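Whether sequence alone determines local backbone shape is best considered at the level of individual chains. The sequence in question and its structure tokens are set out directly beneath this paragraph.

===
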Amino acid sequence: MFTQIQTSSGSSQLGIGAGIAAGAFWGLVFLAPVLTPGFSPLQLSAGRYLAYGIVAAVLIAPAWRRLRRSLGWRDWRGLAWLSLTGNIVYYLFLAQAVQSGGVAMTSIVIGLLPLTVTLAGMREHGALPLRRLAPSLVLGGAGLACISRDSLASVEGGSVLGLLCAIGALLSWTIYAVVNRRWLARLEGISGQEWSLLVGVMTGAQALLLVLPALQANGASHTTSEWLQFLGVVTAVAIFCSVVGNALWNFASRALPMALMGQMIVFETVFASLYGFLWEGRWPNGLEAAALALLVAGVVSCAAAHRK
């Protein structure tokens, strides 16, 4: 995979390290729902993105006046759409998937992101033809089939719900990745990091609309210690996953070729699966191991197709 990088400078190695670290931070997202079992996905989404919005607003404040003059109404609409699709809707699906189907199943389904993003971007200039991508898509589909069979074999309906929500999260972030890339390509005078923080501010504003429904969504009462744990988890996720993870990803995006960046997303699945198995205190079963192997094989095949 890494033979695509032709330079011998240290920036490429730093970029690879940043991409792996970003995956390690993003993988922590999958643990948040299991660390707060008494709270609904809507509450988790509202809490995480309120915290994300506050942190992003503090970080973007020094450049706010300049950015406000640079953005038009169309840009704000784009920010609103990206925030809703890539953050609010995505995390609602993700949290429900983890609580219903488990960390391992959800992380493996999300592991199809490198393939779905590649497929969605086939119409872009320089994209590979479908025949070159077919092997990687077949391998990725086989991986999804393995985890689907494992989920549907369960007698509990929650596993089926978890699988459907995981697929919904996959589609939501695929749309976000493609649309966000197009916005970044036509922006002028705004860095990728500034755009990411603006998305965070918009996400925090949207999360304000979720507060009242979130408080009414779950009739269960919580103790003070449970609320403190909830606040600690959503704040940690906002800082480490949304702010730090995105910053590392932006750094890697500047240091590495785009073809390699698409493959780096798989590290989120690898770390999320590792965290999930550690949390559950078990080794992956046969279908889970096969799914991970097929997903990784699909990424390797996709990277080989780009090298050719």
Confidence is low (pLDDT under 50) at residues 1-9. The two ends are 12 Å apart (CA to CA). Residues 151 and 211 are 32 Å apart (CA to CA).
